[in-house]
Amino acid sequence: MIRINDPTDRVREHTDPEINRRIDHETRVNVQVHASSDDDAIERHLEALDEEWDVERVLMVNASLLALSGVALGAFVNRKWLALPGVVLPFLLQHAVQGWCPPLPVLRRAFGFRTRKEIDREKFAMKALRGDFDANNLGSSEPAKRALAALEAVVR
Question: Which of 35, 53, 100, 125 is least surrounded by Cβ atoms within 10 Å, i.e. has the fewest?
């Protein structure tokens, strides 16, 4: 079970609780919006969730692009550009070690990037809406209530 204060989810642990609440609220709204959707719409949303980039992927791509740009500019334009990878790569190392780095709050607050676990929680709820877990006796109540209950069980 994934817990909100799960120590293995270091990004959430190092994110402002208000941002975490906002992201969780948006997830609940997505589930409620899809509660009255047909299976095809839910399937399309699941496919979109599979394609969604998590915050760590965005962080790695941005750090790589900045570091490579700094090396290229340092080699062909001016050696002072080599300072760019010298700044970016320690941030990436800090994130790998601590689960936090300076760009992380910006990516979460301004752009709303979620962790893989946050995305997976929404996928779990969507699958519950679709009825994927009915054989596991989640009950026969209204689909939205089943999905939200499944989501809450994962969030706790």
Answer: 53
- Give the whole-angstrom CA distance, residue 64 versus residue 154: 33
Q: How far apart are CA 2 and CA 7, in angstroms?
A: 10
Quote the tokens at residue 17. Answer: 């609780």
Spatial separation of the C-alpha atoms in residues 5 and 155, rounded to whole Å: 9
Interval 73-91: pLDDT, tens? 999 999 999 999 999 999 9
- Helix intervals (H) in the chain: 10-13, 17-34, 39-51, 55-76, 83-98, 103-109, 116-130, 143-155
Structure tokens at 3: 């817990």
Burial class (CB within 10 angstroms; exposed 0-12, middle 13-18, buried 19+) of 4: middle
User: 99 in helix, strand or coil?
Assistant: coil
Report which of 8, 29, 26 is spatially closest to residue 18, judged by C-alpha positions. 26
Chain segment 6-18, per-residue pLDDT in tens: 556 899 999 999 9
Short-list 14, 26, 25, CA closest to 104: 14
Distance CA 37, CA 131 (A): 12
The C-alpha atoms of residue 137 and residue 142 are separated, in whole angstroms, by: 14
